Amino acid sequence: MIIKEYRVVLPMTVEEYQVAQLYAVAQASKNETGGGEGVEILKNEPYDNHQLLEGQPTSGQYTHKVYHIASKIPGWARAIAPKGSLEFHEKAWNAYPYCRTEFSNPDYMKDNFAITLETLHVADRGDSPNVHRLPPEKLKKREVIYIDIANDPVDRKDYKAEWDPTQFQSQKAGRGPLKGNWKATCSPVMTCYKLVTVEFKWFGLQNKVESWAHKAERKLFLNFHRQVFCWMDQWYGLTMADIRRIEDETKRELDSQRHAGHIRNQYGDVDE
Fold first, then answer.
1. What is the pLDDT of residues 89-124, one digit of tens each?
2. With a cut of 50, which residues of the chain have pLDDT below it?
């Protein structure tokens, strides 16, 4: 088991990010879907009276998605997996500002593979020592990784100028471009604290798979949040009612798009 906490500082409020994230998830899903692969949304509905974390809301939005992503899995993993087995289920409980997401592969790896992602969104600069209230034994295992959406290097095949926070300036909010030590001075500011636990129980492959999964998560967090910021003029001013409408439209589009066109991969592969 490998536990890492990724901290992503962003120049927006916690309230703005709730809309920004959901908008970006919908857009990114469309950019990853086509040619028989991509995102299938099975459920997207409210839930109530479900305690995820003490002190956080007990109601929110539940989603269940299936990711058909065989071409994005490393070659060494595809070589040992039966055809049709590389479908991953994502179950998420969004009790904003706390969110819990669970990834699994129930048809093939079953209980031998699990990724749990717990996110807290806090109005700070990424300097809170233990927002997840981890006990001492987990704190010893946790590794903290800071992600800088402007200054961290991006793979050349993933780079697009329109997703570069050092080049983008919002016409609606007047924020950006992000230069130098922007995290120390930007206002407003917030941090996504993403606690990721990866567990893989197959002897001989445990370290390889767990390390690959964390490498993939870090790359996803960096590229996704670069988009969140650079799409600001698209989501700025939207309401949650607007977001639910966009999500309904996205589900219909994904159902059609998944069975047509070509395989898409906006973030590139993560192999090793």
1. 999 999 999 999 999 999 888 899 999 999 999 999
2. 264, 267, 270
At residue 84, the pLDDT reads: 66
Coil, helix or strand for 224?
Answer: helix
Taking only Cα atoms into account, the Rg of the chain, rounded to an integer number of angstroms, comes to 18
**Helices (H), ranges, the chain:** 14-31, 75-80, 136-141, 206-230, 232-235, 240-257
Per-position DSSP letters for 40-68, written without gaps between them: EEEEEEEE-S---STTS-S-EEEEEEEEE
pLDDT at 229: 98
pLDDT value of position 257: 78
Burial 45-84 (b: 16+ CB within 10 A, else e): eeeeeeeebeeebeebbbbebebbbbebbeeeeeeeeeee
Closest CA to 80 of 114, 104, 109, 103: 109
Rounded to an integer, what distance in angstroms lies between the CA atom of residue 262 and that of residue 97?
A: 36
The residue among 93, 37, 110, 105 whose CA lies nearest residue 69 is 37
What is the architecture of the domain spanning 2-257? 2-Layer Sandwich (3.30)
The per-residue pLDDT for 70 is 67
The domains of the chain are located at: 2-257
Q: Is 114 within 8 Å of 102 (Cβ atoms)?
A: yes
